[in-house]
Amino acid sequence: MGGGEPRPFVGRAAELDRLRRAARDAAAGRPVVVVVSGPSGVGKTALVERFADEVGGTFGVLRAEGSPREADLPFAAAGRLLGRGGPSVPEMGGGSVLEVGGRLIEALDRAQAAAPVLLRLEDAAQIDAGSLQACGFALLRMRGDRVLTVVTTDRPARTLAEMGLGGRGAGVEQLPLGGLTVSEARAYARLRLGRAPSESRVRTLVEWSQGNPLYLEAALGALPGGLPDDPRALRVPATLGEVVAEWARTFAPASRAVLDLLAVLDAPAPVPLLGRLLDSRAVAADAEPLVQRGAAVWVREGGPPALRLLHAAQRQALYAAIPQAERARTHRRIAEVLQPPASWRHRVAGAEVYDGGLAAGLRAAARQEEAVGQSALAAEYGLAAAQIDPDDRGRREALLRAVRLLVVTGRYGAALEHREAVARTAAGPPRTEVLGLLEFADGRDTAARLRLREAWDGYAERGALAEGAGAAAEFGVAACSLGLADEALESAAFALRHTHSEVVRGMAHANAAYAEALRGGPAAGLRRLGCLPADTGAVPDAETDALTHRGTLRMLAGDLTGALGDLSAAARRRHLGMSRISVTAPLLYAVWCHFLLGEWREAARTVSVAFDVARTAGRSVDFFALHCLGAMLHSFSGRAEEAAADLHEAAELALSADMAGPSFHLAASRAVREFCAGDDERVVALLGGAYREAVHQGRARVYGPRHLPLLGVAYARTGEAERAEEVLRLLEGAEGYGTLASLSLGWVRGAVAAARGDGESAVRAYRTALSAPRDGGDPLPVRSLVRLDLGTLLLERGETGAGRAVLGEAEAAFTAMGAVPFAARCRARLGDGTAPAAGAAGPVAEVWRSLSERERDIAELVARGWTNREIAHELFLSAKTVEYHLGNVYARLGIDGRRRLRDLVQREQG
């Protein structure tokens, strides 16, 4: 079981040089992703194998290979990358891109501690989407890492899109491969045959094969005597499949049996398994000619030696050349030996006719897997049943159930591939429901709502109330997205009356809570979620969406610390098949919690993570919300250009968004920018207009606690006291919790009193607000805004000492948060040089402001005494990335050492 003669390798000099340059960059801490693309058989694997042999002594290797058997199993390839110490495939299937991506970052970090890492993703078009997304997330978070990622694929655009790397730019290098030239093919033949055929013979072969190395290898292997001199005697098979079949026939029967078995198995096979299936003790010896002539390779990854074919094109050609009856018998024999799920796949492949018993077994297996949370396997079994059930109705039901599972587990791309097949099934509520879910998967919530309502009504007319409950709950998700509270509540009530499914009940609870919030505000929605355990960890998986909504509504109502607990748990433990809300949703609202708590760096860090998750597993609505959040953070930090860029992106996305009120959220984000710029008239125009539109009344009730204080204060400052009082009455009628509600209410009361000329009442309102107990977390930005207005008013009233003291507190808080515009206003009002004037910062402060968001994150955590490893875990980065950014910080500040950095950061932040 030696390696045999190495396969001939010629040409590709330029391609190898590009890979070598990429390896040098990676070894120097500049991570690179190289995408090697081209048609099957063109030599992608051979090129990467040759390169891997070159760097094998200096690079550690992590490798995952795509397999059609696992294309629909979430995180199957990621599980192999994480190795024996990592979670099993079923356990990985219950994770999220955020969770699994974080584990991959840690694994790459550990691996590169000893040597640079070559991460190989082979046949990436066949790797499951979850693993590609998790790998993409990990790679997006890397800087300074000694990691070279080489991806081989015959569909580069699709692979990069699934990894979220399509727009990454210089970090991704494309390396497309074409066929060998005539001179390269002639050199190949010389190595293969021991002599050089005439150029005319090789030219003919190249013209037929387009220089495809697998075609050339097979053709030469099928002509043991070499290329004939007489051109009339040269018969070149027209297709790759045909030439591979002829090549296979040149092997001895025992070797050919091994080759055919590998084609049917479609996976690397250990020698003991091959021996058992072939009833032979000589498998290793019989396999040697295959290895020596380049038809197969040995694989040693622990355990007994295994054999595999070169790549998918060879397998397909060999498989097609095996007589159908023989293929079926081999599949059935394999099914007797292997365990599920592999045994089921071979039983289906071995079925020569429709098989009712097998279909029934697959449906039972699907139900069993679904019951234990393995929705991916359940969907796979359902699709298989749809192929072999002799009953047309059985095939239809299996298809619809499987596609439904694909949608509700978030595998939208896989589900949409079956859209035409679903549309061809018989009309009725099941088909309509699945078509509605496919509209939802495609981001068309309006169309989804119409389809799902039709399905719900259709089930009800038939008396199929349990099925109707599922459609009603799915309808409610779309209704909530569109802000239709009454419809969402109606659907939730119906679903809860007619279902025993915990998943359907979980959807209904979440829908009802959000609908109640649309009707009566966040507190009303929270009351609807009183059924959830207070302990976040005790909330069942089926209630994950309700947990996300509870966190969101807690944040809006003022319980910021409770909200963060719910949202963090929802983001990290989201299980496939249990949640309809994007994994970015809890991250989005966690950003607001951190912002309102004054943890602006943490808010920016969470936005960064959420963007990378959205790039790999998100939809356009996620990017719209993230750009709105980015604009808010930049506006409060005084980065006007960055805020404008985010708002421009959000506006572009809003043009095609089929979601809940993009115009409302865009107007609110623009109003925040204008508030930070001090343009209260624009705040009134934007927010006042959004809140007056009847279509937005439900959203106004949900998001009022977030926006109404700004609107009330802006009305008061622009002299519209009556409008300001209307806003004040709305806030007084709303039910809020904790310090946030008290501060917001007191801020607007003070602004209204000041606008009416009642300075005494204004001061009293501000002071009462500032003395409120700090329950649910201290909303430092709002507290500081109240202090800014109070200090200004006290100065105007001649209470100079008290006013300066309050303004000094506000200025210190704004400076610590990085709220540049508001800190500058405080200093302007103080105006006597007790605080540095805006723009008068020294060189260190200027450099500090020029650092990137991530560099400031790391510097601030270093100043708190965190280790690089702790920082890496907190920020979803590798330790090498932390070192990279920290090195940049040291160089730009002109310092060395953590102690000096800590001193500078603490001085900069006051």
How would you characterize this protein structure?
There is one protein chain. The protein has 910 residues and is mainly α. Among the domains are: 13-176, 3-Layer(aba) Sandwich (Rossmann fold); 182-248, no CATH class; 356-572, Tetratricopeptide repeat domain (Serine Threonine Protein Phosphatase 5, Tetratricopeptide repeat), CATH 1.25.40.10; 779-839, no CATH class; 847-908, Orthogonal Bundle (Arc Repressor Mutant, subunit A). Helices cover 67% and strands 4% of the residues. The protein has 48 helices and eight strands. The strands form two sheets. Strands 2-3-4-1-5 form a five-stranded parallel β-sheet, sandwiched between helices. A three-stranded antiparallel β-sheet has the order 6-8-7. Helix 6 (129-140) links the parallel strand 3 and strand 4 (147-153). Helix 37 packs across helix 38 (721-733). The protein is globular and about 105 Å long. The N and C termini lie far apart (69 Å). Residues 84-93 and 832-842 have low confidence and may be disordered.
